[in-house]
TrEMBL record:
SUPFAM superfamilies per record: Periplasmic binding protein-like II, vWA-like
InterPro entries membership: CLCR, VWF_A, vWFA_dom_sf
Superkingdom: Bacteria
Pfam families in alphabetical order: SBP_bac_11 (PF13531), VWA_2 (PF13519)
Xref: PANTHER family: CALCIUM-ACTIVATED CHLORIDE CHANNEL REGULATOR, ZINC FINGER (C3HC4-TYPE RING FINGER) FAMILY PROTEIN
Start and end residues of each VWFA domain: 412-602
Name this polypeptide is given: Ca-activated chloride channel family protein
Length: 606
């Protein structure tokens, strides 16, 4: 299938696909050689390879996007043990996984100890970094170059595809997604499934989210320009698609694992897809169907193949190539750049390229055609020849992200915070002269999370302990009207008493369900550092039975944050609450991580 319906074209803002070729050879006077295992002996190596003395070793830090982090870690280990050298210089690769958007944001904010090499999923992040005035962070010698490729797809559980095909419907375009979001499942004999549910990531942190935003704007009516983004027809098109989103995943690998786990838990007699479609990178759909949704190829096996595999669509009105550039940062020293060049050459060797193909990527020099692996696992036509739409320059990209934030589905969220006496416990913080309490760490984390919400989102605050079980600190209100007031109330929180975890969860869920706004994402963020200590008839099982087990678009999703030591927080019950309501749990077992946990949670809301 190809996008042959006349997608609009425009010039790239930056040419990030230059060949390294002779520039690499000229920059490195002595090419890579094999070195002895101990790095000291000279002579002849195995298979006739020259063994050179390794007099110096240079380590480079590599930041990889999360969906390819596991295969990249494996390749880094192979490189480290390969005995390659550049002259008398040997290299070691230290790899860290981080989403492309998070790395871009950190670099733009003056990241402390930045990596020497950055491996985002798409060059669009480089364009945004340059648009924000930080193009000088990117080295031009060597220039960014792809190490592999993939495409953006709309992936649907097989049961969804079959339900549509039974009524003569096939999803082929973004316009089809809009139609389904408006009609819901009643038009296709699945009234019990309710509204059409689309899963996608946040455009500010995830490449799948950014690419989905770009693709929908490209598919919208009219000419593509910054001025036309505010055109009522364009905003109606994009908002119509966004209206079917029930949450914005903060990170694609985590989201796919959650979908897989939920699908595997479902009772076949009461089946309702976790999502009807998800906008992701094709490679991740491949791993999902092989039983490795979390991105670890080592888990691919016949035993882990999902009961309800994904089928993919390359939208005819907007398919994007994801080019996986290899980016050397300008802060790298000459020796580090030499090792970076050699590591790149190692990665594009045919042997290593097979590793990428085996985990679902497309060839780095031709993303238009599928590999045998994609044909076999995803059912992609063997003769497929995609036509890609070109991504916009940095200025238009930034305008799209800003526009998306205005038209995305808005949120109605209730913050439910534990203020029991255990929140006065001291947390070890090596960066402070006096260690803070857990509550003192929580307060600024919750305040900063409010800044991630739009003025037109809605937010409220409850706290819980005992006598009373919970307190309604602030009713759910428009963020723009209460942000400052809510921050002040959070600032003055005090901790005492026991932990009425079950009672507050029950009451908060009922309140949010009764006042549910179907036009918004309805959610609760529940943080607790302890076990339930107060009487609750029937205990955890009764609570879980009360929560909406169907988890359809009309449900209230409860995102949980177990806080502090695992033996204290009721991690298992909190995880069950999140799973039952089709949400997610975020780890803050180290109290110093509570700020990061809140950022991750709130990214689900846009």
């Amino acid at each position: 299938m190809s996008s042959t319906t006349g997608p609009r074209r425009f010039h790239r803002g930056h040419l990030l696909g230059l060949l390294v070729g002779l520039a690499l050879i000229a920059a490195t006077a002595i090419g890579p050689r094999q070195v002895a295992a101990d790095g000291n002996r000279a002579g002849e190596g195995g298979n006739g390879a020259t063994v050179a003395p390794c007099r110096r070793t240079e380590r480079i830090q590599v930041s990889s996007s999360t969906e390819k982090a596991v295969v990249m870690s494996r390749l880094a280990e192979q490189y480290n043990s390969s005995g390659r050298a550049v002259g008398d210089l040997c290299g070691k690769i230290d790899l860290t996984p981080l989403t492309s958007g998070a790395t871009k944001n950190a670099l733009a904010a003056g990241m402390k100890d930045p990596p020497e090499v950055w491996l985002p999923t798409s060059s669009m992040w480089l364009r945004l970094l340059e648009q924000e005035g930080h193009g000088d962070l990117i080295a031009r010698d060597p220039a960014p170059q792809s190490i592999t490729t993939s495409t953006l797809v709309i992936a649907m559980p097989q049961s969804v595809v079959e339900a549509l095909e039974k009524h003569g419907k096939r999803l082929k375009t973004w316009a089809d997604v809009l139609e389904l979001s408006r009609s819901g499942w009643s038009a296709y004999g699945k009234q019990a499934w309710g509204k059409f549910i689309l899963g996608r990531d946040n455009a500010e942190t995830s490449t799948s989210g950014l690419a989905a935003t770009v693709a929908t704007y490209i598919a919208a009516p009219g000419e593509l320009s910054a001025a036309n983004l505010a055109n009522p027809q364009v905003t109606a098109f994009v908002h119509g698609i966004e209206s079917s989103v029930t949450r914005y995943g903060d990170e694609a690998v985590r989201f796919m694992q959650q979908i897989y786990d939920a699908e595997q838990r479902q009772d076949a007699t009461k089946y309702r897809p976790y999502v009807d479609a998800v906008v992701i990178q094709e490679q991740m759909a491949y791993l999902y169907n092989r039983g490795a949704p979390g991105g670890d190829p080592g888990k691919m096996s016949a035993e882990r193949v999902p009961r309800n595999p994904l089928r993919v669509v390359h939208p005819e009105d907007g398919t994007l190539e994801l080019d996986h550039p290899y980016v050397v940062l300008a802060s790298a020293t000459p020796d580090q750049r030499a090792i970076a060049r050699d590591f790149y050459q190692f990665l594009i060797d045919p042997l290593q390229q097979k590793e990428f193909a085996n985990v679902g990527f497309r060839p780095r020099d031709d993303a238009t055609r599928p590999t045998e692996q994609l044909v076999h696992t995803l059912g992609v036509p063997a003769d497929q020849h995609l036509t890609f739409v070109q991504p916009p320059d940095g200025k238009l990209l930034a305008a799209m992200v800003n526009s998306w934030d205005k038209v995305r589905r808005k949120t109605r969220v209730l913050l439910v915070l534990d203020v029991s006496g255990s929140m006065n416990e001291i947390a070890d913080d090596p960066n402070r002269a006096q260690d803070p309490t857990k509550l003192q760490l929580l307060i600024p984390a919750a305040q900063r999370a409010l800044d991630l919400l739009d003025d037109d989102d809605e937010v409220g605050l409850w706290t819980f302990s005992s006598n009373p079980s919970y307190t309604q600190v602030m009713p759910v209100s428009r963020v723009g009207a209460v942000r400052a007031q809510l921050k002040a109330r959070i600032q003055h929180l005090k901790a005492s008493g026991n932990t009425a975890l079950y009672a507050v969860t029950d009451a908060a869920s009922q309140m949010m369900a009764k006042s549910l706004d179907p036009e918004r994402i309805n959610a609760i963020v529940l943080l607790s550092d302890g076990q339930n200590t107060e009487n609750y008839p029937g205990g955890a099982r009764t609570l879980l039975d009360k929560l909406n087990p169907a988890g359809r678009d009309t449900s209230v999703r409860i995102f949980t944050v177990p806080y502090g030591k695992a033996e204290n927080a009721d991690v298992a019950t909190l995880a069950q609450i999140a799973n039952r309501t089709k949400a997610a749990q975020y780890d803050a077992s180290d109290p110093l991580d509570v700020g990061d946990a809140f950022v991750q949670v709130f990214r689900n809301f846009g």
